[in-house]
Amino acid sequence: MTPLTSALAAIRFGYGLHPGQRPPDGPQALIAQLRDARNDAAPAGPAVDDRMAMLDANFKARRMRRRNEAGADEAIKEASRALVGTVTEDSRRLVARAVGSEAGFFERLAMFWTDHFAIEAGNRRRAVLTHDMIERAIRPNLTGSFGDLLKAVTKHPAMLVYLNQARSTGPNSIAGKRGKRGLNENLAREVLELHTVGVDAGYTQKDVREFAELLTGLGLDEDGFRFRPQLAEPGAETVLGARYGGGKANVADVDRALEDLALHPQTARHLARKLWVHFIGGVPEPSRIDALARVYLDEGGGLMPLYRALVDEPRAWELPLLKAKLPFDFVVSSLRALGTAPREVTGLNRRQFEAWLTVPMMRMGQPFLEPGGPDGFPEAPEAWITPAGLAARVSWAGALAQERARDRDPREFLETALGPVAPELLRRAVAGAETRHEGVALVLASPEFNRR
Amino acid sequence: MTDLDFSRRRFLGTTLALGCSAAASPFVTPVTLAVTPGDNRLVVIVLRGAMDGLDVVQPIGDRALRGHRRNLSTGEAGGAHDLDGFFMLHSELSGLMPLWQAGELSFAHAVSTPYRDKRSHFDGQDLLENGGNSPDGGMTPGRDGWLNRMLSLLPGASAQTAYAVGRENLLLLSGDAPASAWSPDSDMALSPQAQLLLNAVYRDDPLFRQAGEAAMTLAAAQDGNAMNPRQAARAAALAGFAAQQLSGQARVAAFSLNGWDTHQNQPGGLAGALKELQTAILTLKQGLGPAWGKTAVLCLTEFGRTVRENGNRGSDHGTGGAAIFAGGALRGQAVHGKWPGLKAGNLYRDRDLMPTADVRGYAAWAMRGLFGIDKGKLDTVLFPGVDLGKDPKLIA
Questions:
Q1: CB contact (8 A) between residue B211 and residue A390
Q2: In this complex, do B186 and A367 lie within 8 Å of one another by their Cβ atoms?
Q3: Separation between Cα atoms, residue A104 and residue A12, nearest integer Å
Q4: Which of B151-160, B350-359, B372-381 has the least mean pLDDT?
C-alpha cells in the first residue's frame, strides 16, 4: 500500500495518484521532478507570430464582411477554423500533459502561475494568445527567477492585450502629442496589486500613475512584442521610491523596474503566502511566511529555493486535507486515477472534448482557463463546494464511471485513487454500492477525493 | 450497511427525479434567492467592474462636464434622454424611460461605499457586499453579506424557507442566516442507492454535507421551466429565473452582471453592459406581473470611474458614482443626492466624482421601507457605522 507521505506528495503537490506511476516519496522527490521536467518546459504549438497572423486574418475577414466585400464569409470560416483548431489542440495538450505527467509538481506549478497571471481571453479565438503565454512565458521560466518570469509575462502579447497596455500612450510622447490616445493604468495597477507587491503594500495612486507612464511603449507588431518608443512617456518615473528612465525611451528601464518589484520584500511575502495557501491551505502563521520570503530574498529571487522551502514545511505533510481541488484538478485527477492515457485525451474530437471536459468544468464553476477577472480563481474550499458545484462534480463522476469503469472493482479503485487517505466510512460505502461503476463514482465524489 | 447514518433520507424526496440534464449555459452568473415573510420584494443587482455613473446618468447641466469628456457622456448628441433638466439618461437605457414616466425608476448620484483610494475591484466589491465601514476595504468581523444580515432581522425567514440560488456563493447573501445556493442547470445522475451512500460519506465533512443536502433538496424541488437558459440571453435567464421564484415564495433575490470595467472604447463596452441591465430590469417587470408593484430593484456598483476620459475613449477606476433603482414599489422619477460639481477644485483627489452620500444609506432606507426593519438596526446590524443621512423616501 502507498505510504502516507507518497500519497500526500502526489495529492497535495501533484494531480493525484496514477495506477501506472510511482508517486514521489517526499520533498526531495518533488524537487527532483522539477529538475527532470526540462523537457516538459519546451514550448509546444505554433509560434507567436503565426498566432498573431491567425488573429490578424480573422480581424481582416471580419472587416471584409462589414464592408460587404466578396469572399468575406469564406475568409471568416477559414480564419475561424485555424483559430479554433489551434486552441482546441492547445487545450487538449494542456489537459493531456497534466493527466499523463510523471512530474505532477511541475504541472501544478504551471497552472499556479497561469492563475497568478490570470487572463480572460473572453472568447475561444483570443485564447490562442493565452496558450502561447503558458507555453512560452510561463513553462520555460517557472523554475528560474521570478524576475524573469515576471518580465516574460508582462511583455507577452496576451497580457498586453488583456490589460489594455498595447494601446496605452504617454500623454507627452510623440504619439500622445498628436492627440487621440492616452495613458491606460490597467496593467500597471494589476502588476502592483496582483502580480508583485500586493494590494496592501502601501503604494499610492501616484505610484500606479508613474508606473503606467513607465510601461508606455510596451506594444505589439505582427510578430508579437515590440517596444514602441513613439508611445513612451518621456522623462523619469518614480515607482515605490525608485527612479527609472529619464534618458532615451528604453525597454531596459521597464525591465529594471520589474526586476526591482520582483525583489521587493512585499512581493516575497505575497508569493510565499499565495504558494502556501494554494498548496498547503489553511491560514499560514506569519512566521512561516516570513521564513519562506527570507529564503526567496536571500536566494536573489530564485523560485527553486522557494519551492524547496515550501515542500520542506512540516505542515505540508500533515493531515487533514484542507483544500478543495479546483474543478480542473478534480477532472484531471479523476482521469489519472482511472489510468487514462494522454493519447486518449488528445484523441478526443472537439465536441467530445467539450462535452467531457470543458462543459463539466464550467458547470463545476471553473470555465476552462477563463477566471472571472485578473485576480484568478478563488482558493477557498467554500467557493467550490457549493450545492451547484458539488452537484456538477457528482454528476460528472457518475457519467465518467459509467463510461470508463463498468468493469472495475471499486474496492481496488479506492486503494488506487486514495490509498492511505481513504477513511473507513468511505470503504464501507463503496463496498455497499449497487453497481461497480457507482462504487467508483462514490470514490470520485467523496470528500477525500475532492480535497487535497 | 445498516450502521451508516441515513438520517438524511428525508432530503431525498420520493423518486429522485433529478434529471434536468440541460446542457450548461455558458457563464451563468449566480442568482441568489431568499424567502421572507410579507409581500414586498427586493432584488439586488451587483454591477461588477465599476459602472461609470457619469455616463449612465449624465450631468449635462454641469458646464464643467465637456472639459473632461469628449467621447463619453455626450448627452443629446449621443441620444441620451432628458430626466430632470440637469441629468440625462444614457441612450442604451431608452427602454426604461416608460418606467421613469410611471414613477418606477430613480437614481442616486455622487454616491459611494466608504472604500477609498486603492480602487481595487475585488476589495471594492467585497466591501460593497459585506457592507462594512472600512476605507481600506477591510470586512466586518463576521465577513458576511448585508442581505444575509437583513434576513436575520426578519422573523419567519427560516431554514425551510430561506434559500439561495447560484453557481457560487454570493458574498452579499452569505452568513449565518440559513441560505444555500443552486443554479438552474445542475443535475445529479446517480441511483437512489448511490445517493444514500453519498449522503453517508458526506456525513463527516461539514462543507460537503451541507452542499450535498442543499443540492438534493433543491434538485427535487426544481421547476423544469427554469432549466434551460441556453437559448435566452444571460441577463434574461437570470432575471427570469429570479422573477419566477419571487412570484412564488421568495422575497429577496440577488445576482450580478459583469462587464462594467470600461478602460477602453467605453461607448461600445458600456452599451453592451447597459443592454444586459435593461433586459434584466424589463424581464423582472414582465415576469413579476402584478408583483412588480411591490418590488424594488437596487443596482449597485463597487465604485465610480474617473471624471476625465482616458486616452482610449475609456475611463479608469474612480470613487463617486451612481446607483439605479427600479420597481413599482418606488416613489420614482427622481435623481437623489447632493451634486458636488465637476469643476477642478470640486473633484475627489483631483480625479474622481466627489461622493456626497454613502450608497449604503439608500440601501438601508430602502430595506426599512420594504420590510419595516427597525431604524436602530440600520446603522448597527445592517451597515455598522453608516451615516444614514435623511430618509430619501425611495419607497412609496
A1: yes
A2: no
A3: 10
A4: B151-160
- Mean pLDDT of all residues belonging to chain B: 80
**Considering only CB atoms, which chain B residues are within 8 Å of A385?**
207-208, 211
SS3 state at B128: helix
Identify which of A185, A370, A388 has the shortest CB distance to residue B182: A388
Pairing type for strands B295-301 and B57-58 reads unpaired
Q: Give chain A's mean pLDDT.
A: 93
The total of other beta-carbon atoms located within 10 Å of residue A339's CB is: 16
Instruction: Quick: pLDDT tens for A353-387.
Output: 888 898 889 888 899 998 988 999 999 999 999 88
Could you report the per-residue pLDDT of A336-348, keeping only the tens digit for each? 999 999 999 998 8
Cell of B10: 428525508
CA distance B188 to A394: 6
Of A182, A385, A395, the CB nearest to B189: A395
User: How many other CB atoms are found less than 10 A from the CB of residue B3?
Assistant: 8
Euclidean distance between CA atoms A371 and B19, whole angstroms: 28
pLDDT digits (tens, 9 = 90+) for A225-278: 999 999 999 999 999 999 998 889 999 999 999 999 999 999 999 999 999 999
Smallest CA–CA separation between A36 and chain B, in Å? Answer: 37
B181 near B164, Cβ under 8 Å?
yes
Cell representation of residue A278: 494554494
DSSP codes, A191-258: IIIIISS-TTS---HHHHHHHHHHHTTEEEETTEEEE-GGGSPPSEEEETTEEEE-SS--HHHHHHHH
Are the C-beta atoms of residues A362 and B26 closer than 8 Å to each other? Answer: yes
A121 touches chain B (CB under 8 A): no
Residues B242, B284 contacting (CB under 8 angstroms): yes
- Which residue is it, cell 443626492? B337
Q: In this structure, are residues A350 and A88 in contact, taking their beta carbons and an 8 Å threshold?
A: yes
- For the domain spanning B7-382, the CATH number is 3.40.720
Q: In the numeric block, which cell numbers belong to residue A163?
A: 490589460
> Please, are residues A173 and A149 in contact by the beta-carbon 8 Å criterion?
no
Q: Give the closest-approach CA distance of A433 to chain B in angstroms.
A: 6
CA torsion sign, A181 to A183 to A188 to A193? negative
- Kindly determine whether residue B168 and residue A386, on different chains, have CB atoms separated by under 8 Å: yes
Cα–Cα nearest to A279, from A243, A250, A251, A315: A315
User: Percent of chain B having pLDDT more than 90?
Assistant: 54
Q: Looking at this protein, which amino acid is placed at residue A278?
A: H
* Domain boundaries defined on chain A: 26-143, 161-262, 327-450
